[in-house]
Design a protein that fits this description.
The radius of gyration is 18 Å and the shape is globular. The protein is mainly β. Strands 1, 13, 14, 17, 18, 19, 20, 21 and 22 form a nine-stranded antiparallel beta sheet that branches. The chain has a single domain (6-242), classed as Sandwich (Jelly Rolls), CATH 2.60.120.10. 40% of the residues are buried. It has helices spanning 260-271, 283-286, and strands spanning 6-10, 13-17, 21-25, 38-46, 56-61, 64-72, 75-79, 84-87, 92-96, 101-107, 114-122, 133-137, 144-147, 150-156, 158-159, 162-163, 174-180, 185-189, 195-207, 210-212, 217-220, 225-242, 250-252, 255-257. It binds fe (iii) ion. Fe (iii) ion (FE) binds next to β5 and β10.
């Protein structure tokens, strides 16, 4: 057994996105351009409507998946595939933008707390121009494993024999939301080939003995076991790992491809109204290659 240490701690950068929404970005900043297969992580948390009310009106994506996990507040989603979804507290949305999607994500409240994560997960080259797909999940879609002093909500991947409903066959993302009572320790076997991070968003914790105060983002070092302890006030954090894709990443704003030419092509397509090629095809999700 080798405990995974903290490899790097990233300080979140406040970034203005959409029509003027303040988000706290960790992956996708100069300190951590990406963490293969993850391209971007934004955490939004504010009870000041000025920080979120403008929302994210129509904008394009190509070449990757977006995953939004809502903790507090309501966001309405609308996209070029014809999907509409109301994302509420505890719910999540997975969108395979692939060849091209234009969508909007708009807050459905003018006061109160808005809190959640948006994670961008890369697609392998062979999938970047495939048919887009979309799924949303209500809070009760996610299995929860309760142990003494801990509560593990499984959004994606397998934990303790149970599977989260979000299944990304290309990068095998495991996404857990863990609540730990004070002074408890969470131990979890994690294949050494998986790369990822933890983000402490309530209380404070320690990873293999390294202190992680609230709002710490830590890249996981090499090892096969995670050991996370909660401080005197307990802790809540997400653990997110995936299989690296190992291909060149060329990113420009909402487009993430393998080469500069493909990015230029995406801009030309968007300019010419040709970014959206396909309507949603849910069978594309089910027929995706099985895990290696
Ligand atoms: Fe978006």
């Amino acid at each position: 057994m080798k405990l995974r240490p903290v490899k790097q701690i990233i300080k979140a950068m406040a970034v203005t996105e959409g029509a003027g929404v303040t988000v706290h970005r960790t992956i996708g900043t100069p300190a951590l351009k990406n963490l293969d297969p993850f391209l971007m992580l934004d955490f939004f948390h504010s009870d000041d409507p000025d920080d979120y009310i403008a929302g994210f009106p129509d904008h394009p994506h190509r070449g990757f998946n977006t995953f939004t996990y809502m903790l507090d507040g309501h966001m309405q989603h609308h996209d070029s595939m014809g999907n509409k979804g109301d994302l509420g507290p505890g719910g999540a949305q997975w969108m395979k933008a692939a060849s091209g999607v234009i969508h909007s994500e708009m807050p459905q409240q003018s006061s109160g707390m808005m809190r959640g994560f948006q994670l961008w997960i890369n697609l392998p080259a062979e999938q970047k121009m495939s048919t887009p797909a979309y799924q949303d999940f209500s809070p009760d879609a996610f299995p929860v494993v309760e142990n003494k002093g801990s509560r593990i909500k499984i959004l994606s991947g397998e934990y303790n024999g149970q599977n989260g409903p979000v299944d990304d066959p290309y990068t095998q993302v495991q996404f857990l939301d863990v609540t730990l009572d004070k002074n408890n320790t969470f131990t979890h076997k994690l294949d050494d080939s998986l790369q990822g991070f933890i983000y402490v968003f309530e209380g404070d914790a320690a990873l293999s003995g390294t202190a992680l105060p609230q709002h710490s983002f830590a890249v996981l070092g090499e090892g096969d076991t995670l050991e996370i302890s909660a401080g005197a006030n307990g802790a809540r954090f997400i653990i997110v790992v995936g299989k690296p894709i190992g291909e060149p990443i060329v990113q420009y704003g909402p487009f993430v491809m393998n080469t500069r030419e493909e990015i230029e092509h995406a801009f030309a397509d968007f300019r010419d109204g040709k970014l959206v090629r396909d309507k949603a095809n849910f069978s594309d999700v089910r027929n995706a290659p099985t895990r290696a």
